[in-house]
Description:
By secondary structure, this protein is of the alpha/beta class.
Amino acid sequence: MSKITSLHVVWLRNDLRSYDNAALHHATAAANDEQNSAVLALFIATPKTWQRHDMAPIRQDLLRRRVLQMQTELASRNIALMALEASSYSDCAKIFSKLADAGMVALYGQTEYELREQQRDKEITQQLQRADITVNWYDRLCIMPPGTILTQSGDTYKVFTPFKRNWLSRLHEQEIRCYSKPKASVLVDVKQLMQQLGVKEMADGDGCSADWPVAEQQVLDKLRGFCQQQVADYNDKRDFPAVKGTSRLSAYLACGVLSAQQCVNRLQMEAGPALEREKSGASVWLSELIWREFYKHILLAYPDLIKHKPFQAETAAIRWRQNKTLFKAWCEGNTGYPIVDAAMRQLNDTGWMHNRLRMITASFLVKDLQIDWRWGEQYFMSKLIDGEFAANNGGWQWAASTGTDAAPYFRIFNPVTQSERFDPEGDFIRRFVPEIAHVQGKEIHWPHKKSTPSGYCPAIVDHDEARKITLAMFTEVKKSDG
Ligand SMILES: Cc1cc2nc3c(=O)[nH]c(=O)nc-3n(C[C@H](O)[C@H](O)[C@H](O)COP(=O)(O)OP(=O)(O)OC[C@H]3O[C@@H](n4cnc5c(N)ncnc54)[C@H](O)[C@@H]3O)c2cc1C
């Protein structure tokens, strides 16, 4: 540290990548322009806050593994990454005050949209500005940042299709820019700096996310492989959980190993004219990335969502059941509905669940068991490797018919016909519910016809009955709303 007099600090949070990282790019450019300046990347693990946000252990482990990997990747570009262990967001302010004393001249970071994160960043911005430190936030979580896709009257879209139309027209007007990999000129001695600051090094995780590679190049190769070899079939295969028809990139998008900009850039490169065809795999995949942005725009415009309020206010009057026994059976994959059980066990065993199954299990919890969607939302968050507030809340409110552009309340998935349609051979069910793997043919979807196979649980609810109860609950609320 002897020669370094000013530090340009990049606070990494949801942008754990070195390619297409605006904060790193601008920090290195600024530091390389100044004498005796260096870039310091910083990550602060805050397990107490993560726990409060129900962040799944597997997601926490992925973050820790990615940060350690990124340390090596950035070191090869002469950029030091200081990974610290704190407790909660309130500790971040103390760390920045020590960094200010150690010569920090500027902070760079990518914006986050959740309420507490916004408050934290506002407070730290004020604290640093008071100390004459420049603060630079880059709004790159979405390709089209919130506030840029609005209705003609300047409001946030509440319905997806017109949002998407507007989004696509904006895409046609611009080229997506991805930042190149940064290279700094001076490497900070992190060990010495940590000693000087008296801060604690980030602890290792327990390795429970080991099935998910964390090297940036491997993740970029996955994206390229998907866009070259799989995206053309996406529209035909994406709804079938037994086949690998989707990208499985959600965990990387959630913690920012990949940016949405990189995804669309690669898609444009590989898919070419197919992107312009409405039902092509490429354009349907692009639509999913637009859904991701739609929910983020909604979250920023309606911060009450973070307090788990329903988007459609009248649905707050629904009296959901508080049945812990039924909820436990759903969580553990013991409902007696094979597709629901297979899906919940996929989530519990792997930390990931196929999108069609997220819709089926969410619908089952809310519309077959009449249990509060917030219980399910929290459970998903506590298990998902890609757990992400906007998409998870959006997905749950969609399924519960309480959200923006939600499924109409009277459209209630029948879990058995969903199973017949989307797992026709029962391959997915047999993989995750071994007790009924021996059941032949179509009976796999409803193995209770003669008698429940030994070792498997009887159905915890009658779907037709449950459907009537749910319809009555919604009708009541809609009626009293006038
Ligand atoms: C009840 C429920 C809860 C969900 N919770 C989450 C969550 O916590 N985190 C999360 O990233 N997604 C969530 N989703 C959306 C979706 O299920 C996952 O993004 C998808 O299954 C991830 O797999 P993939 O990467 O193979 O997706 P692909 O089909 O390859 O899609 C590409 C990317 O688009 C985005 N995406 C796809 N579908 C959606 C969608 N409906 N809404 C928002 N973004 C989407 C994801 O970033 C995904 O990686 C949820 C959906 C439902 C119905």
